Each structure stands twice: as C-alpha cells, then as structure tokens.
Amino acid sequence: xxxxxxxxxxxxxxxxxxxxxxxxxxxxxxxxxxxxxxxxxxxxxxxxxxxxxxxxxxxxxxxxxxxxxxxxxxxxxxxxxxxxxxxxxxxxxxxxxxxxxxxxxxxxxxxxxxxxxxxxxxxxxxxxxxxxxxxxxxxxxxxxxxxxxxxxxxxxxxxxxxxxxxxxxxxxxxxxxxxxxxxxxxxxxxxxxxxxxxxxxxxxxxxxxxxxxxxxxxxxxxxxxxxxxxxxxxxxxxxxxxxxxxxxxxxxxxxxxxxxxxxxxxxxxxxxxxxxxxxxxxxxxxxxxxxxxxxxxx
Length: 298
Description:
Elements: H1 19-32, H2 34-46, E1 55-59, H3 65-73, E2 78-83, H4 86-98, E3 105-109, H5 116-120, E4 125-131, H6 140-150, E5 151-160, E6 164-167, H7 180-198, H8 209-215, E7 219-230, H9 236-253, H10 259-269, E8 285-295
Parallel strand pairs: 1-2, 1-4, 2-3, 4-5
Antiparallel strand pairs: 5-8, 6-8, 7-8
C-alpha cells in the first residue's frame, strides 16, 4: 500500500507503475501541499491532548515528503516511513539525508494488512499518520483497529481522508463542453469505487471516521480541513505539476471519459496549443485535505 497523496487515487498494481515517473510526481504534489500538511502537523502538536511524540509511523509514506516534515515539526521523534514500494522509500531516505533529519529517520518496506506484525515489532508509536492510504486497504475498520493496536497510551492516529476534489481550471475553458473537471471527477469516483471493490477482503464502510474511531476504541479528537490555494498565474513548478497530474489522469481514466472530453484533454496537454495548459493564464491549483484525529486514551 502506497499513499498517493492526491485526488488521482493511483491504484494500479505496483508492477504496472513506472516509479521513475510517478515518484517525482508524488513528491512534487506533496511539496506543493507542504503548507497545509505543515499546518496539520502543527495543529496536532499544539493540541492539549497531544502525546509526547517519540516515534511516528508515516503509513503509506510514498517518497517521504510528509515523513520529513513530521520529523521537523516533532524534533524529538524518530520517524519511520512505511511503504510497499522500495523505490519510493529510497527517495524518502535521500530526502531525509538532504534535509538533515536522517539520524532520526528510518524506512520499513511493508505491505498492509499482511505486515502489521512488522510494524508491531517496532515497539509502538505515539503518532500514526495515514495520508490517503487507509482507502487502499479492503477492510478499513480492521486496518484502523490495527493502527489502534500499534499506539502507545495517549497516542494519536491522524487520517487524511476526504476533502474536496482538486480544481485547476475554470468551469468553462472556452473549448469543449463546460464542466470538464467535474466530469473527470465523476470518472475518477467511478474508478475509485472499482478499485475499492477489487481490493482483497473489500468491505463497504460508511465513511464516518469519528464513528470508525469509536468502533476500534479510539476517542475522536476533532477534524480539520487544510486548504491549498495557488491562484493563477501559477509558478512554473506548480504549472508543471498540473500538466503532469492531468496527463496521468487522462491516462488512467481512459475509457471512462467521453470522446469529446478526451479530445479536449489532448489539446490541453499539447505544448504547442495556445489553449493548452502550458500557456493558459487561468490555470490554478485549489484543493482541500481533511485530517481526522483519534486518540488512544491513556
């Protein structure tokens, strides 16, 4: 299970994925979201019930952007980046070295739910960060119970789940039918549901995270949503990220898009087209990530 930090639920089998391509895309996306993620981490650190954080598990860490950020916000903590993809953990280690937190940083290659035992062998955690990773597990309630079992008394689970669909274009972009991103979102929701239904041991669960915390013996500690708001005109790195992420969505949504929308996306992705993403003055990046906290009572 890898955390794919964004709206575009990357659920292909790891064997089908070129991590040299997807790794930098995930890293870039998490970097662009650095401010909301840091705000979320500081919110957790400032809570009156905040535990004394000595070990953090970043479950589904991907390339380790958030792992390193957590190491900076919690300067006393050892951070363990947990992911099923060694190529992403290698990026995480390189990043920790670059940012000077490598002495408190380690990685663990683990495929959940099978490898919960390997996490347990670490000896407990004070904070478990699960960033858009729980929904990659078929039985989310059982996985959450597994997280609860890894927490030390007073420890916290931070689930990043939900939020709002990312918006990068106006409703009417002047070509094709208005509402392109809304239709892409609907296609992504169909694909996401298909992905969920095909997971091993898939169980349907009402996505009431506070109720799920209660069900596994954790006390809900609040929910907050953090906004990323990069208005037009975008910086070059942000624009490049939008181009790369829309190119990936075009590829993975495939036949879920109608012919006209596919043709419009081809134009948007054409570097030579004046109406394309490379040249449009109205490209922006607006997203909202929701964080739910549950605490193991001391």
